[in-house]
Each structure stands twice: as structure tokens, then as C-alpha cells.
Amino acid sequence: MWSIKLVAGKRDPEQEKEAQAWIEAVTGERFPPGLPYEIALRDGIILCRLMNRLAPGIVGKINTSGGDYKMMDNLSQFQKACVKYGVPDVDLFQSTDLWDQKNIAAVTITIFAIGRTAYKHPEWRGPWLGPRPSEENKREFSEQQLRAGEAIIGLQAGTNKGATQAGQSFGASRKIILGK
User: Which pairs with CB-CB distance under 8 Å and at least 24 residues apart come from 21-24?
Assistant: First the structure.
């Protein structure tokens, strides 16, 4: 059973491996050998290629050479592509999370969010990452059904079965001292 285990910025090596394997399967390219996960993703090239495989042309130009500014531009383009693709803003990492390696767990969360969003794109027939998101299950009720529901006290509301607060006392009684 899949579950997100990334809590409060803590890294989960198993989920990083799962995210890496998914990226490799989607792009058809292996991560550079010997490079840690966060270093391989740092320049944004792999992430931009991932988005272009999911939605061809969503990232216009991927900078493969140049200075830090060009590589940071890749991360910015990647994030814009994620928003266009439908990834919720709350699931996106900040560029500095990856660039400065401050919060690699947030990067993994973003990759899993892309994997969930891919389910919503019927044109994508490749590998999936994570569970399928739930869909709307809209129901229509008649006026009679709605009225009948108003008369029922749900079990979530509980019951007091005649309970009262008689006999309860909490803490010490209040002492009022005059003249001080």
C-alpha cells in the first residue's frame, strides 16, 4: 500500500527511489551514475524533460549549459509547467529547496503530485506514480429525502442518554480575599 511518508521535511529514501524510477521510466533516461538524487535534479534539466514527456512542448527551451542563472531558469520553467499541467500550487517546492538542498522532501512531494496529476490527463498512457486521485461522486436527493434526513440524529452527534453535569466539580473553589 502506497502512503506518503514525508513529514515535516524529513526525507524518505524509499520514496526518493520510487520517484527516481518513475522519472526514468517516463523520460526513458537514467539518472547520471554516481550522482545523488538531489544533485541529479538540481539543474532542472531532468525535471524539464519529465514535463515535456508528460505534455510535449510545455517547457519551451531547456538550458543544458550556462551558469547558475540558466540552471535556476530551468527550475522556474519547470514550476510554471507544473502549474500549467494542473499540479496544485501547494504541492510545488521552492527553487531554493532544491538548488540549496534545503528541503529535498518538498521536491519529492512535487514529483508525487505530478504523478497524481498525470491520472487526470487521458492523453497520458505511460507509467503512473502514487494512487489515483478520488473523483467527484455527486448525488441528487429529492425534497422528501432531505426532509426525512432532518428528523434523524446522526450517531456522530452522540447521545447523552439523560446524563447531566450534576456532581461534577473541576478544580479548587474560588477564594475571594477582601482588603488586600
Answer: 22/111, 22/115, 22/127, 22/129, 23/50, 23/111
